[in-house]
Amino acid sequence: MVQSHLLQNLCGYIDGQWVGAAASKTFEVCNPATGDLLAVLPNLGAPDTRAAVVAADRAWRDFPSLETREGWLMAIHDALLREKQELARIITLEQGKPLKESLVEVDYSAGFFKFFASQIHNLAPSPLGEKIRGASWTVHHRPAGAVGLITPWNFPLAMLAKKFPAALAAGCGIVTKPADLTPLTTIALWHILDGLKLPPGVANLVIGDAAPIGDVLCTHPAVRLISFTGSTEVGRTLIKTTAPHIKRLSLELGGNAPYIVMDDADLTAAADALMANKFRCAGQTCVCANRILVHAAVADRFASEMARRVSALRVGNGMDASTEIGPLINRAAVEKVARHVEDAMACGAKRVAQASVDASLTGTFYPPTLLDHLAEGSAMQQEETFGPIVAIRRFETEAEAVALANSTIYGLAAYLFTADVSRIERMSRQLSFGHVAVNTGTGPTPEAPFGGMKQSGYGREGGIEGLLEYCEPQTVVVA
Ligand code: NAP
Fold first, then answer.
1. Per the confidence metrics, is the pTM higher than 0.90?
2. Could you tell me the fold of the domain covering 12-253+456-478?
3. Does residue 173 line the site of ligand 1, with CB under 6 A?
4. CB of residue 253 inside a 6 A radius of ligand 1
5. Are 416 and 427 within 8 A, CB to CB?
6. Among 154, 160, 217, 288, which is best to mutate for testing ligand 1, by the most ligand atoms less than 8 A from CB?
7. Which pLDDT tens digit goes with each residue over 175-203?
8. Which atom belonging to ligand 1 lies closest to the Cα atom of 232?
9. How many whole angstroms separate alpha carbon 362 and alpha carbon 33?
10. How far apart are CA 369 and CA 77, in angstroms?
11. Which CATH code, of 2.60.120.590, 1.10.10.10, 3.40.309.10, 1.10.150.120, is assigned to 257-445?
């Protein structure tokens, strides 16, 4: 079982109190690298979620000044950095990613607290300069109200850090529900919040089965907005369940990112960037390249650059300093990746390289694999693989590359490698993705808005747009 000074209370947190420690219904959290049991947690249900919503609804109505909220955000930022090693250890234990990636995740998360603290002055009332119809007009940014924040398992801290500080900055009362596979990092964050003595009700945490918790968040009249990061399938359920209640939704859903390598690209740079982009978190990120589209004229050379790199990857327990790739999150994830590889090979793809997985590893590992000659009709073309597979699909023309890239229901992230400046302008305009990275595999940053087009969702996180998601503009006209 995991021991940590940030996990002394293994339960939820409602209205300033740890709750549910004695609950009879429980669920287990296990380490995907070893299968070891990390914790047994209470399964909080609808009544606790309703209590959390009531507390959050009371709290936002009595929120303090912008300056106080800015102070809270910076205090949390500082505490995250103080507890960086311990938070990273907990992320790796429950999620499996290499410790060095978890350390980066803590830094990245802290960055959102700092950024939204720096933007909070934008929420001050803004008077229109001139009198209109003889009256003074002022635009206020009121808090959205009580909000539900639902997060996935791949970045247990970062996915919440994109939402929580923006909601707090805006003055909302918060109810968070983390993924059941990785709730310990969120509980650790609540130990930090508890130590900072935020007013009761401001930040509430419920853990347990998604359906009853989600149902309360979707239907309770006090919840004004739900911000959700997860699969497109669950996003659709939230849209349906909230529709009769007309709630605001911010949806960060699935991705199926194209990674386009043109014939004039720097192939070494494109291969290096793909390794970092594709294998982070063992390929389980919404922004990681899923469809590798390579111009036929350079595809053989690119495949051999990648083969060398993929074969050399070191797979292991994320707590070992030499590990570059950890396990997948669970057995179902391994089965999905194996199914995608079998399907691709049945459609004609060839396995070019594969890293080895030591037989002593008992967790849910899948060997990083390079496939070439991916064919039309393969499942990987349409579904997120969410695993350490690079599958190269060849194309002949720029128009074909754009058409292939856009031939998906998703529109989250896309990558393009080319040396041609006019092509960069032309192709980035044609790509229907919220994030287009050119000659780099980099993902989002706190300072810029990030979110999806098409069925990757709506709403933005990061940037001033990510703060305004949690505000209700209200115009007050005084005659
Ligand atoms: P998921 O199955 O959709 O779950 C996400 C969260 O929703 C979890 O907390 C889950 O709880 C909860 N949930 C499930 N059913 C619910 C319901 N009926 N009502 C309310 N909440 C419900 O997704 P995942 O497997 O954790 O994450 C992987 C997916 O997230 C991928 O598709 C990935 O692309 C996407 N993602 C998107 C972004 C982005 O920025 N767009 C970022 C990261 C990940 P339980 O764990 O208890 O089931």
1. yes
2. Aldehyde Dehydrogenase; Chain A, domain 1 (3.40.605)
3. no
4. yes
5. yes
6. 154
7. 999 999 999 999 999 999 999 999 999 99
8. 32
9. 7
10. 38
11. 3.40.309.10
